[in-house]
Write a structure and sequence with these properties.
The protein is an alpha/beta fold and about 375 residues long. It has two domains: about 180 residues, FAD/NAD(P)-binding domain; about 140 residues, FAD/NAD(P)-binding domain (3-Layer(bba) Sandwich). About 30% of the residues lie in helices and about 25% in strands. Strands 5-2-1-9-20-19 form a six-stranded mixed beta sheet, with helices on one face. Strands 13-12-11-17 form a four-stranded parallel beta sheet, covered by helices on one side. Strand 6 and strand 7 form a beta hairpin. Helix 1 runs parallel beside helix 8. It is globular. The model has no long low-confidence stretch (mean pLDDT about 95). The structure holds flavin-adenine dinucleotide. The site of flavin-adenine dinucleotide has 35 residues, from helix 1, helix 2 and helix 8.
Length: about 375
């Protein structure tokens, strides 16, 4: 009898898994498994590209591909988004009211900044975590000549190093354009250091000191007064700004929050840190940003998870227990300026240690930005 796997979310993880799955099934000469990918748009955006868009270093079109063209034959794509997941019925209700039954479900619905979490954010702040926001910020930065650029960050957010990269690249771009002298950069972070990962915080501190980038810790946005251009914080200190770049705390997808017994109130799905199965439901796997795992919400984590999840999913199809285990592995490049980068790699048990920034690492990052499309097809 044919079994159906439904993957909800056609972003990095969903696309990569769907392609690797049909490849594996073909290699096993199995034609008794149907793979359905539920997306919500014709286009696929390489989100890390938004960093370069916001800083006017690249155009958005460079980071877009047609979703359908990224998929191998055998993946059935529907672009009608999932409205509700019903665990008891083992089914997904789509936005047009139709119903997709599943034998196994993979939740790969990602995360997004909640622009309404902080009062006044939409009126007073710029961001670069969505394409419209990145373009708005790009335009504002083009005209900005003097004053304070304040960078404020909420937790959790995807790609924990992206705000740091933005700050360092911003400094470099403004220097190249001979605008830096009249502009103060003030980077703030919500906890007792400049980054959640201690070695990265130390590395950032050194970079900031060398480059006259100012910083403050324990800064948690509470409210933004767009008229007065002030950020009121939970710590009771106010920060004035001339241009505010904010990364609001992220949430999981609405479909998770709108479905019974699926996720927590913020939309994260309780996930077994090793097998990547949903806790308490062996018919559901969770991939990428949608998990509640204590790891970076990043494309690289998602990439490493795909191999483990695929192995366990194939075993589940045969009625076997999950044996593959994910160790929390992540790998992130960090742009230090326009010509140099460093990287960190870490897992559940081993903290990262940034190496010295170099042009070679910058080119590795640039190369990955181009080869991302191959990794989606399971080539890398
Ligand atoms: C500015 C920026 C810079 C970044 N830089 C890096 C980096 O350098 N390195 C790195 O590793 N990561 C980086 N990331 C993070 C990386 O892009 C994400 O962590 C990664 O895309 C997560 O993959 P995912 O499959 O879990 O989610 P996504 O790729 O976000 O995919 C989720 C998909 O599900 C869709 N979806 C949601 N709800 C529904 C629904 N109801 N029905 C159907 N579809 C739905 C979403 O629209 C989305 O298309 C960056 C992100 C940003 C924004």
């Amino acid at each position: 009898m044919t079994q159906r796997i439904v993957i909800v979310g056609a972003g990095s993880g969903g696309t990569m898994l769907a392609n690797n799955l049909v490849k594996a099934l073909r290699e096993q000469q199995r034609d008794d498994v149907e793979v359905v990918l539920v997306g919500n748009g014709e286009d696929h955006l390489y989100q890390p590209g938004l960093l370069y868009v916001a800083l006017d270093l690249e155009l958005p079109a460079h980071f877009h591909r047609r979703q359908r063209r990224l998929l191998l034959p055998g993946v059935h794509l529907t672009n009608i988004p999932a409205a509700r997941i019903d665990r008891k019925e083992q089914g997904v209700q789509l936005a047009d009211g139709s119903h997709l039954a599943y034998d196994y479900l993979v939740i790969a619905t990602g995360s997004h900044p909640d622009l309404d979490e902080i009062s006044g954010f939409r009126q007073g702040a710029y961001s670069f975590y969505t394409e419209p926001e990145a373009l708005r910020l790009r335009d504002a930065l083009r005209d900005f000549r003097q004053g304070r650029i304040l960078i404020t960050i909420g937790i959790p957010h995807k790609c924990p190093v992206a705000p740091l990269e933005f700050t360092l690249l911003l400094d470099d771009v403004l220097r190249r354009q001979e605008r830096r002298k009249e502009i103060e950069i003030l980077y703030t972070y919500p906890i007792a250091r400049l980054h959640s990962l201690e070695p990265v915080a130390q590395w950032a501190q050194e970079q900031f000191e060398q480059r006259d980038i100012h910083s403050e810790i324990f800064v948690n946005m509470e409210e933004i007064d767009a008229n007065e251009q002030v950020v009121h914080t939970m710590e009771g200190i106010d920060y004035s700004y001339d241009l505010l770049v904010g990364i609001p705390p992220h949430k999981g997808a609405a479909v998770i929050r709108n479905s019974p017994d699926l996720g927590d109130p913020d939309g994260w799905v309780p996930t077994d840190r090793k097998t990547l199965q949903m806790k308490g439901d062996e018919h559901i796997f969770v991939l990428g940003d949608a998990t509640d795992l204590p790891i970076s919400k990043a494309g690289s984590t998602t990439h490493y998870e795909v191999a483990v999840l695929l192995g366990n999913l194939l075993r589940a199809l045969d009625g076997s227990r999950a044996t593959q285990t994910y160790n929390g592995k992540a790998f992130c490049f960090i742009e230090a300026d326009e010509a140099q980068a460093t990287y960190i790699t870490f897992d559940y048990d081993h903290p990262p240690q940034p190496v010295a920034a170099s042009p070679l690492l910058h080119w590795f990052k640039a190369a990955y930005n181009e080869t991302y499309w191959l990794s989606l097809r399971g080539v890398l």
